[in-house]
Design goal:
The structure is a single chain. By secondary structure, the chain is α/β, with parallel strands linked by helices. The protein has 2 domains: 150 residues, FAD/NAD(P)-binding domain (3-Layer(bba) Sandwich); 228 residues, FAD/NAD(P)-binding domain (3-Layer(bba) Sandwich). Helices cover 39% and strands 24% of the residues. The protein is built from 15 helices and 26 strands. The strands form 8 sheets. Strands 5-2-1-9-22 form a 5-stranded parallel sheet, covered by helices on one side. β24 and β25 form a beta hairpin. The chain is globular and about 75 Å long. Flavin-adenine dinucleotide (FAD) binds next to α3, β2, β6, α9 and α12.
Length: 467
């Protein structure tokens, strides 16, 4: 059998003194839990600065082997972009960091071990760490409401957005063949719970998508379509302030989006949304963007928390637990300027916190003084549909087409990797020239199952004589 170059190199390596020294060397183990904005940016820093060293091992544990660019998620739901346009494979970005696709199940801070399960057979894996950066983000909070949990669509990951887009098209098809007018309106009503960034952007995007796509269904009238946002506050997008929030509402109303303020979704049974003010809206689609909670792994940890988030100090370490660091949505990071104020959970903050956490891990290993996290929020942007946006930058407010253009430019620049930027630019250009894609990409089994359940509910309701 011919011996390959790699085998020869390995034999030489394993026999050399330096190799034996290398293999026996006690490595400093750095583990990053979570492959979102915070996890990736910490890993990128360590990939460049530490991971090549033979005495250091850096591992990233992530549920998916890609980073999802959430600011553009609603564009996938609206058919402006394809799912693959807004994700980047972690393994292409990280060359020296070990990537493990697994689910973290628990962290033993005393034994300094992190446990995970992986693969279809849920194989167990245990890793030791000297430094652990917790960057597990947050999870959707259904506030223990089983109806909402079972029936609502979430807007958190890539499949949520793809499923929503598919569902909109599936229900246009369904409605186009429905003879019962009330049922047709139910298929054509889309309720979005939450008027923050995710809710307002999703509502604007879905509204554009469903109204533009419905033009290809001659049986359907635009007046039959309802897109409704339910928001507990006085104005949308509270993060951007009252002026821009009210502007967003006005613009969305002009585009026929209904905005119900000062109300919360109390229940949903797959066919009717009930609000806490007694109002009910018959709908086959509730998009739930109204709450987040910490990951169960974070919730189980005994370290100090602020509304479920792990309290970090200004160096991103968790006091009282040496070698434990945190960043991103799962961390409450003091803003350093005002006492008792924490940075908001956004990608903009998460990635910057993570880079400082990674630098401080490096500084700890090198025996250098730690660097505090200091950051002034630059601004926030939201796209609310129909080439309209709202933005606040260094105290200046922008709205309309200019803000929408800023939104596209800023996030295009932030999207990792040139190839994805080019794909998104091409997709946007093609959308402008030829319109967005309106096909149902796949007949998701999930939708079929739901349809069966709806058919059952409708039959039951008909028997009881309720709408
Ligand atoms: C629809 C939407 C739109 C948004 N728009 C914007 C925007 O325009 N601008 C902005 O700044 N922010 C925006 N955000 C917020 C932004 O996405 C978050 O602040 C950011 O993702 C936080 O980064 P993170 O790394 O802390 O968490 P995440 O990005 O959520 O990453 C956490 C990672 O940990 C993984 N994970 C969780 N639990 C486990 C486990 N047990 N085992 C293994 N892996 C696990 C997750 O799969 C995920 O990959 C938006 C969010 C959403 C949902």
């Amino acid at each position: 059998m011919p011996v390959t170059y790699a085998e020869k190199r390995n034999r030489v390596f394993h026999n050399s003194a330096s190799a034996r020294e290398y293999l026996n060397m006690k490595k400093t183990k750095i583990v990053i839990a979570g492959g979102g904005f915070a996890g990736l940016y910490a890993a990128k820093y360590l990939d460049k600065h530490l991971a090549r060293r033979p005495d250091i091992e850096v591992t990233l544990i992530a549920r998916e082997n890609f980073i999802l660019f959430t600011p553009m998620l609603h564009e996938v739901a609206a058919g402006d972009l394809a799912p693959g346009d807004i994700v980047n494979p972690l393994r292409r970005i990280l060359r020296h960091v070990n990537v493990i696709e697994a689910d973290v199940t628990d962290v033993d801070l005393n034994a300094r071990k992190i446990r995970c399960v992986h693969g279809l057979e849920r194989g167990e894996l245990e890793l030791d760490f000297d430094h652990l950066l917790l960057a597990l983000g947050s999870e959707t909070n259904f506030f223990d409401n089983a109806g909402i949990r079972d029936w609502a669509v979430t807007m958190k990951n890539l499949s949520d957005a793809a499923l929503l887009r598919n569902r909109v098209v599936a229900f246009l098809e369904e409605a186009s063949l429905e003879t019962d007018a009330a049922a047709r309106r139910q298929w054509l009503t889309f309720v979005i719970a939450g008027g923050g960034f995710a809710g307002a952007e999703t509502a604007g995007a879905v509204n554009d998508f469903v109204r533009e796509t419905a033009k290809f269904y001659p049986q359907l009238a635009d007046e039959e379509i309802r897109v409704v946002v339910i928001h507990p506050g006085d104005y949308l997008l509270p993060e951007l302030g009252e002026g821009l929030g009210r502007y967003a509402e006005r613009k969305m109303r002009e585009r026929k989006v209904e905005v119900i303020k000062g109300a919360r979704v109390a229940n949903y049974d797959g066919w009717v949304v009930t609000l806490n003010n007694g109002l009910s809206i018959p709908t086959a689609t509730l998009v739930w963007t109204a709450g987040v909670k910490p990951s169960p792994v974070v919730a189980a940890l005994s370290c100090p928390k602020e509304r479920g988030r792990i309290v970090a100090d200004e160096y991103l370490q968790v006091r009282g637990f040496s070698g434990l660091w945190t960043a991103g949505d799962c961390a409450a990071v003091p803003d350093g300027y005002e006492t008792g104020i924490f940075f908001p959970p956004t990608a903009q903050h998460g990635m910057r916190e993570a880079i400082v956490a990674a630098k401080n891990i490096e500084r700890t290993i090198l025996g250098q003084a730690l660097q505090p996290f200091r950051y002034r929020t630059m601004g926030m942007l939201a796209s609310i549909g129909h080439h309209t946006g709202v933005a606040s930058f260094f105290g200046f407010k922008f709205s309309g087409f200019v803000a929408w253009w800023m939104w596209r430019s800023v996030y295009l620049a932030k999207l990792p990797r040139l190839v994805k930027k080019l794909r998104v630019m091409i997709a946007w250009t093609l959308d402008l020239l030829f319109g967005r894609d309106i096909e149902q990409m796949i007949t998701l089994r999930d939708v079929e199952e739901l349809t069966e359940r709806w058919t059952r509910i409708r039959a039951e309701r008909k028997q009881l004589n309720v709408a």
